[in-house]
Structures are given as structure tokens and as C-alpha cells.
Design a protein that fits this description.
19% strand; 484 residues; alpha/beta; 11 helices; 23% helix
Length: 484
Amino acid sequence: MNYMKKDSCRLFWYWLCFLTGVPMAAAAGSGFVDPTVVPEVSQESGPVSLITDTAVSEETEETNENTATPVTLAEGEGKYVDNDSAPFSQSEAVESYADTDVVHLIVELENNSLLAAGFSTDDIAANTAAVASYESRQMSALDAMKSRLSSRFGGSDSFELGYTYTIATTGLSVKTEYGNMDTIAAMPGVKRVYVAPTFQVPEDTAVSDGSDDLLQPMTDNATQMIGSDVLNSTGYTGKGMKVAILDTGIVLGHPSFAALSEDQLTESSMTVEDIEEVWPSLNASSSGIRPANVYYSTKIPYAFNYETRSLDVSHATAGSDHGTHVAGITAANKLDTTDVVGVAPEAQLIVMQVFGSRGANWDTILAAMEDCVRLDVDAVNLSLGSAAGFTTGTEAMAEVLDAFTKTDMEMLIAAGNDTNNALNNLLGWNMSKTSNPDIGLVGTPSTLFQALSVASVNNDKTAMLYFTVGDTKIGYSDTGVNTS
């Protein structure tokens, strides 16, 4: 297997992502500063970066913009199970689901995946003759399974075939009643069937300043805080790299995501021709959309909503602008009009929306990750999870992640923003006793051994309005002025 690309960029991503954790940080609201609305810094009066008062950091309020909306059910109707409390192990699923509950299932076949068969990501991206031949046999087995499933359950309104997988596993997703799982598992050629869990965006934390407003974490000093601006000055700017953001979408027209100039591109930069070449093999192609339409610009050459199978990657579907925040920290362009700049400002963003209003299903995430391989992506950012995650009972997901981590893609998964299990304890310290240490709130799937788990860090500054008394600048809040 060819690891050349992974070895060449490993130091860059590990230094920026593993040590800092900033690409995984989730801010309340977007936390991503729009340069069109941020006031200019004035020497007389105006916004200035002040060190945040840590005394107020104990007063926190956590919000989750992707909380599932209650669904009204008709009498006798099975509920649609699709939330962050979904179990991650088969034993828990048995205890948690009723037979009539509608769930997303992953059906794995006994056939080896492309990666397990020994094909490299370069082979798969190039769709070599050997890959095409092997994959045709996979598809024959998958088509036969789809026929059996449709014949057996097609008469049900709750039945729906989903995405197909051939790279990290040979399988498919299906939406059906939980009670059908044993029947599916007993079908010829089936290796394993499991419920696809649903993940949430890491919960946002806002800090109270004592008023009715909340101080929102901002990104205008993020790169300076972690020192990535210093690394950028040495030539490591992400130029020629493709970073996939599997999240809630993006604001495509944001000034910080403007098209890259010709001198910021390399031979490895993604083009519309690259997309057209691999499009028939992508999961996204099942949408029927023309491949040229997913290309937006040299900065965002690929934008597709895997949840709705559409081109709408706005935050309307997911109800959260978290994706724009993450994309901005990762690769916002360096502009003269704002201090906001990404860790890798010259990298291209591969936008893959996987979140809907209820969260992100694992079957949707898996479809996007397989497309990342075919698109020859360098790094995949998964800022999602479920707090206090499992390390056991998730063998199927662990095997899939293990297959991806052995490729030349870097898989970066959020540890979460759930602080620690002693937050707001009665002792008032927000820390655990040494006799009862913090067991951690790190979220699944970053708890799995195969994941490169990346934690977030708090900003050390925030932008505020101020007035000057002598040589001292005193910050204040004005509810009538928007500084975010």
C-alpha cells in the first residue's frame, strides 16, 4: 500500500490538529467571525482583544442546536429511532428498541472489501482494471441482497434501501423495522447486521458575563493562540491539500471561502474534471445530479448533502452553522479585511453535509467517507460524536475505521466539548478529587482505538468594545451593538 502521501503530510496535520485541537472546537452560534460585520479596531474607542476573565468561566450554559424534535405518532405506529441516545452495542439495542421501531441498519456481506482485498487508495481512486473487476463481483452480491430485501420487506412503507459500500466493507444500509434485523441476518451471504448509531455535533458552551447575553467563542485569534500562523510563515499553508469536512454544511458565499488564485493551486488540487472522472463510482452519484454541479469553486471544489442527496449544503437542513465554524478554523483564507485565518488557509475544502435535523446517521457518514477515498482526500474531519463514548460493543465501526486509518487519509474525530464529569460539582472546583479521578466524557467514535481523537481548547481572548481611561483600555458589553 502506498503511504507516501500520508507520510508527507502527517507532521503537518498532527502538529496542527493533535496538539492544538482547534479544528474540532465547536463554538456557540457559529463562532466564526464574518469580516463584513466585525468593527475595525480603533485606537480611540472600539473593539479590542482582551484576555477573557476566567472568573466567569464557571458559569456555563450548554446548548445543542441539533436536539431531536419530538414526533407525534399515530396509535400503534412504531417510532423512528434516530437520536443521540441510540445504543452503540448489539446487547443494548436488544434492550432499547421495540420490534416496530424504525431504524437504520448496516448489512455487511461476507465478501471482502476493496481495502481488505489489498487494493490501495491510489488504486481505488484511479479505478484500475483490477479494482473495477473485483468491485463488479461485490456489486453482483450486493444487488442480489437488495433484491432479497426488497422482495421480503418491499411492501412496508417503512422499508427503504440506502447507500452501498465497497471500500471499507462490502455492505449496504437499509431503513426498516428493528424486528426485521434477525431475519436479515439469517439471509445467505450476510456476515453481520447492526443498528447504525446517530451522532450529534459536540455541544456548544457559552460563557456568561453576568448580563442576559453570552460571550461567544470567536476565531479571530485562534491561529495566533496555537502558533499555526508561525508554521504558515515557513511554507506549510495546506497548499495542494484537500480536507473533507463532514458536518452540518457551509456558507458557500462567505468571503473567507473565496476562490483560490491560480498560484495557490497545485497539480494535486481538485478540479471539476477530477470529479467528473470518478463521479459514477461515488455514493453521491445516486442522487442523479450532474457531477459539474457539485463543483463550486477552486476553494470549495466539492459540496454535496449526503443526508438529503442534494446540492443544498446550507445550514437549513441541520439547523446549525457548526460546519462553517469548523471549515473556517480549518482553512479560512488569509484576508486583509479580518484577523480570521484558518490553520491551513490554502487548502481546498471538500464539503460533505452528513447532518440532518436529528443528527448524523453512521450509514450516511460511512457513505461520505468512502467517497473521500475515491476523491483522493488528504484528511477527513469528523467533528461529531456521542458523549461518554464506548470502547467496546462497537466492533463493526472499529473495523471500518481501522480500514480507513490504514489508508493514506488522516481521520480526525472530535473528542467533544463536554468538559469533565466534575463540572459544576458541589465542591465548586469543577475538578475531580484525586481519590475519584475524571473518567472522561470523550465521545464515540473518537474513543475507538483506531481514531485520532482531537480535543478542543478554549479561546484565551475575546473581542469586546472598549473605552480608554488614560493608557488603560476597559472592555464593556453593549446589547445594542453586534461584535460577533
